[in-house]
Amino acid sequence: MGSSVLVTGGAGYIGSITVERLTQAGFRVVVLDDLSKGHGETVPDGVPLVVGNVGDVDLVTETLKAHEVDAVIHFAAMSLVGESMERPADYYENNVVAGARLLAAMVEAGVDKIVFSSSAGVYGEPEQVPIRESHRTEPVNVYGDTKLIFERILGWQSEMSGIEYVSLRYFNAAGATERCGEDHRPESHLIPIALEVAAGKRPELTVFGDDYDTPDGTCVRDYIDVRDLSDAHIAALAALDRGCSGIYNLGNGEGSSVLDIIEAARSVTGREIPWRVGPRREGDPARLVASSSLAEQELGWRPEHPELADMIDAAWRWVQSHPDGYAG
Length: 328
Ligand code: UFG
Prior knowledge:
globular; 328 residues; Rossmann fold; 2 domains; UDP-galactose 4-epimerase, domain 1; alpha/beta; 10 helices; 39% helix
């Protein structure tokens, strides 16, 4: 029997694909998700789904004990940069306060390992790219700040109560598996929106600003295949078993601008993607590109699907096989 893992937010985009890959790798998995954003149908047969909030200490403690959980992978969070600037208090409540309660429940149940979904958003506007983990952290949006605060809580919790943690700073997740893909409501992410335009569901895409200090004036991001991202969690669990805590970037080390993505989506789908330039979106750094060499050295992880076209192709296949997204 593999070890037992609680996946919070396991019915969300990255969470569901991680659950899929954990079960394939022989882990026993239990999902905790309040289904505010997640989709229950992503949870595979045989994987228990506990519907509830990570901030519910009694429920989480009971779940950890009942399923004899060895480690927690904590995805559950609000994760939209733009929304975080409109609803700061909700972001601190969900991403910081509820997260701290999850740690309290872990202490109560005697669970001492956690993998945390952090973000490139902790860095803010980078001084140099590719960004290393030692780069100064000065978030320029509320979302990034909530992730940084939780990393600090993890650091102190680790020092004072002996938990081991791995914090994974994701750059921009993209792509899908055959079963699971990206279905946010409303959708705000670039690649799914480009594909909605390609599919004729939206008339056009708005490029949020073309006056950034980048080669074509649009924002540059580092897109990382969601399957690779998920596999990094399995590598992180192995590191925790060796008693290693740490903070790691997860990206490809390649920057793509908004216009690069539109062109790649046009090429993969063979469809036109009309776009126009609109104003900048609040809280967007100009360039976020990762150095993931630390994850390579210490976790033994490296991206297996580094090609942007492959990620967009996987996402496009999923969109075509799920024209209305998930049912629920
Ligand atoms: N963009 C547009 N038009 C759109 C949507 C997005 O121009 O209709 C631009 C954004 O301004 C940004 C880029 O495309 O420059 C990517 O935007 P996304 O919304 O797809 O992703 P973000 O970079 O804002 O954020 C994502 C995740 C965060 C994570 C971050 C890490 O949503 O959780 O990547 O880089 F922190």
